[in-house]
Structure formats: C-alpha cells, structure tokens
Amino acid sequence: MNKEILIICESIYNGNTLKLGRSMAGELNCQLVSVRQAENLDVMKYKAVGFGSGIFFARHHPILLDFITKMNFGEQAAFIFSTHGSPILGKYHDPIKKMLIQKGRKIIGEFSSKGYDCTGPFTLVGGGNKGRPNEKDLRRAARFAVSLFPEYKPIDYYHSLSCRNPLREGSPNIYKVNGVEDEEKNVIELKGDLVTVNQNQCTGCGQCVKNCPLSVFELQQQKSSPVRELDCVQCKLCQTYCSSRAIMLHSTWRDSLRVAVRHSKREFVNYDGCLK
Known about the structure:
Mean pLDDT: 87
Number of domains: 2
Helix content: 25-40%
Structural class: alpha/beta
CATH topology of the largest domain: Rossmann fold
Order of helices and strands: EHEHEHEHEHEEEHEEHEH
CATH superfamily of the largest domain: Flavodoxin domain
Oligomer: single chain
C-alpha cells in the first residue's frame, strides 16, 4: 500500500465522484477515505493529498470545504477532482483552490468529469449525463493520477516474459519471472495472458470475481485465477475494484475481434452466470 498519498473524497449524491476516487486510488495503490475517516488520520504525514467531491452550487461539497477550513495542513502537494452536472465546468474549483493555497498547499493538478444529475431541469428528462462517469472517464482519471505520480505506476511483469505459451481454454498459463530488487519474494508468479493476475500481489479478496460481468475469474487456493480470460471484453472493472493492483490486461485489436466473434456465437447464459 502506498502510504505517501491520501485521497479524501466526499461522495454522497449518486456515488459519481467516488468512482473517480476509486480509479485514482487503484492506480496509485493509495488509501481512499471519506471526510469523516480523514478526521481520524494524521493528514500531515502524507506527501500529497487529493480532495474530491461532487459540485454543489458552483463549488465542492460543504463538508469537504469545512474539513479544509478546520484542519491544519503541512506544505504537501494537493490535487483536486470533481464530478459536475452542468455541460461546462466553469470555475467551480476556484473556491477550494483558494482555500488550499491559503493553507500553504501547492496545487499540482485538477480533474473533473460529468456526473449523473437528476436535479433541477434534468428532472424533466429523467436525469442528465446518464451513465457518467463512464469507463472512459474512469480511464482518464487513472491516467491523470499516473501523470501526477508516475513513480507509483504498477509494474507489469508480463512484458518481461521472453517466451509466452499458446492460450488454453479454461486453463490459464502460469509464468514465473524475477521481481524487482526490493521484492521480499523475488520470484513473481503470473497467471493468464489476456488477463494476467500477479499471484504474489493478489489478496484473494474476491472483488474481481464479484464484479466481472462475464465471470472471467475464480478463486483457487485463495487466489484469483482468470479461468475464462478468452471471454474478457477488457471492461476493466476488475482493475477498478482490485485494491492490490494485481490484475493487468493485455489485448490487441485482433483479440478484440476474436472475442466479439466468440460472443456473437453465444446463445444463452447458464444459472451460475457463465456464458455457454
């Protein structure tokens, strides 16, 4: 767990901003907390802190702003993120930026995305920005986080393989590679090709099993195994929910065509959720 970065997110409306926070925290392998949880932490010990919420009346949520007003901060770097309903972001970040700068913070980056909004005039059409933030927005959020802190980008050991085996239906390949110098376990075990699970990093939490819409994963010996990686459509939900960053996806345009043809031939889904 990255203990140098903290993300504080107050998302109480539709959970829009929490999705962005999870994407960033997952990419940086850092802690994501609410304001109430942050009140019990020593915020000053972190190298950088992210602050995010939905936009309420042209500014971040009052709970987050009140927290910044009351807390004593060091001179850590800060980044800001939000979700908003209006078509144009405007200057909604200005109030929180001003507060942070007055507290001695250096703003190193800002990110915002449209979020589902069912207030005001949007109620007439059943809500605006339906489906936002979407997968594209979450990927943008992850790239934003990495651009700020490239040193925390997860290592994809799969790219270090000099030889790879043919894909096998229902039985993912297992590879062993040497880890980085600081690894306690120098030999890293990887399982899968299109969907690769680092067995050393996997905690067996089961979030990938729970959230994968195509049942790509199974828990085997308390570790995740991509037994149906040939069905993967690269939606990246598994990566979003993997707190240990143990999952890497590898796909070319040929793989995308292959999986599209594969699913076009499917006729039904059985009772355990697996495609046939």
